[in-house]
Amino acid sequence: MSPENSRTRIQRRNRRAILEAALEVFSQHGFRGATLDQIAAEAGLSKPNLLYYFPSKEAIHETLLAGLMETWLAPLRMLDPAGDPVEEILGYVRRKLVLSRDFPRESRLFANEILQGAPRIKPSLEGELKALVDEKAQVIAGWAANGRIADIDPYHLIFSIWALTQHYADFDVQVRAVLGTERGDPFEGAERYLVTMFTRLLTP
């Protein structure tokens, strides 16, 4: 039986509450600015109760990051070597934009970790993430070599997709302030713009 299955319903509920509260606090204040007292208060638990589930702020943060890595890698894993190259890459762009729309706190948590030098996630960046990007970059390079998309550096293409989609989560306040309320949901316009831009960039 897994540790998760062996926990009582109340224990599972409290762990979820702590992780949800920590996500809110970390995404607002970063790892260094967050405190266990803030997380406990956000979760509606006492600090001693929180420490029953997690021994430290570091343990909570690492648990969040471990789950986040899988969420972040999933859209790139879906890039299908057998599919139409332009549609596969545009699909990746759309999936990353959806992540930014639906998981803005997670995006900011990840960005804060990277800005601090990735002390808790660097092994995953150098291991699992690098291996996946290497694999998909090889696929994109093959498409370019066969003339199915424009001749483009696959790594910088992936980097640009990250930058242009995650911007809408990490700088949400700035985006909405500049666009104003009359422009509505920024993600609708973002998708149209990015699809047009990447289609032109990728067309041979």
Topology, element by element:
Elements: H1 3-6, H2 9-33, H3 36-43, H4 47-53, H5 57-77, H6 85-102, H7 104-115, H8 122-145, H9 154-170, H10 172-179, H11 186-202
Helix pairs in contact: 2-3, 2-5, 2-7, 5-8, 6-9, 6-11, 7-9
CATH-level-4 superfamily name of the largest domain = Tetracycline Repressor, domain 2
Q: Which structural class do you get from the secondary structure elements?
A: mainly alpha
Structure annotation, total helices: 11
Low-confidence stretches: none
What do the pLDDT scores average to?
A: 92
CATH architecture of the largest domain: Orthogonal Bundle
Helix-residue proportion:
over 70%
Tell me the Rg in angstroms. 20 Å
CATH topology of the largest domain: Tetracycline Repressor, domain 2
Main beta-sheet strand count, sense and barrel state: none
Strand content: under 5%
Question: What order do the helices and strands follow?
Answer: HHHHHHHHHHH
Distance separating the two termini: 53 Å
Global morphology: globular
Total domains, how many? 2
Q: Would you write up a description of this structure?
A:
The model has no long low-confidence stretch (mean pLDDT 92). Helices cover 79% and strands 0% of the residues. The N and C termini lie far apart (53 Å). The longest helix has 25 residues, at 9-33. It has 204 residues and is mostly helical. It has 2 domains: 1-55, Arc Repressor Mutant, subunit A (Orthogonal Bundle), CATH 1.10.10.60; 62-202, Tetracycline Repressor, domain 2 (Orthogonal Bundle). The protein is built from 11 helices and no strands. Helix 2 packs across helix 5 (57-77) and helix 6 (85-102) runs parallel beside helix 9. The relative contact order is 0.10.
